[in-house]
């Protein structure tokens, strides 16, 4: 016997309410335990099939949602930057307006001055304002070039965002359709699964869950098929096959550790509705 064998526990008849137990609950045979385990496996495999059918879609939707959110943040940042530069342009345009008003004021004052010193001083102020205007115009020109560049980037980002958003909607719809199609069935199967697992003792159930989570195809209980393990397809020695059919204890595959059942168990479960 391999050390991975799951031993069927010795059923205790003397417990604190042993009377009630012996009266109401007859000992569960190994055969019945195997039927219950395989029944659970059969239901869980159907749930697995639904999940395969749904496939990678939930992950794809999640990835797209993340990407769209990232693009949205980037677009917002670019638009903020663009707004800032546009704000700088209008600030400078206002500055130019103010400088021109100042120049007009100085020119008006020049008409009324009484000496050359005052006149020259105003001329200097006017020159200074003109220099300020030239500088502001230069900065505006630079900012406008920056704006053109940023606008191109914003457009590109917006285009990419719109495209991804469309992809997301398509994928979401696909996923919703598949979920709607399979949801009812899956819920019923989940109910069946938890009902089936209630009949199984804790220790066997945790062994089942452990084997199932360790196997890629989710199979923890497999039938013997043409002398081989239905999980890993390694052949099972004849003596072991006899042990499996005798239902004296729960036997696992020597190679993959899955619980093995014979045709009797298989047919019991498959004939149920
Ligand atoms: Zn195996």
Key attributes of the depicted protein:
three-stranded mixed beta sheet, 2 domains, mainly alpha, binds zinc ion, 7 helices, rod-shaped, 273 residues
What does this structure look like?
The protein has helices at residues 18-24, 30-54, 57-112, 116-198, 202-214, 238-246, 263-270, and strands spanning 221-225, 228-229, 259-261. By secondary structure, the chain is mainly α. The chain has 2 domains: 25-54 and 201-270, Orthogonal Bundle (Helix Hairpins); 77-182. A hairpin with a 2-residue loop joins β1 (221-225) and β2. The longest helix has 83 residues, at 116-198. The protein is rod-shaped, with a radius of gyration of 40 Å. The two termini are 35 Å apart. Residues 229, 231-232, 234, 253, 255-256, 258 line the site of zinc ion (ZN).
Bound small-molecule species: zinc ion
Report low-confidence residues grouped into runs of 5 or more: 8-23
**Main sheet record:** 3 strands, mixed
Q: Level of helix content? A: over 70%
Which sequence of SSEs, written as H and E, runs from N to C?
HHHHHEEHEH
Q: Could you say which overall geometry the principal axes of the C-alpha atoms support? A: rod-shaped
Indicate the structural class: mainly alpha
**What number of structural domains do the residues give?**
2
Radius of gyration over C-alpha positions, nearest whole angstrom:
40 Å
What distance separates the N and C termini? Answer: 35 Å
Please give the order of strands in the largest beta sheet: 2-1-3
Overall pLDDT metric: 90
Number of strands: 3
Strand content: under 5%
Number of H/I helices:
7
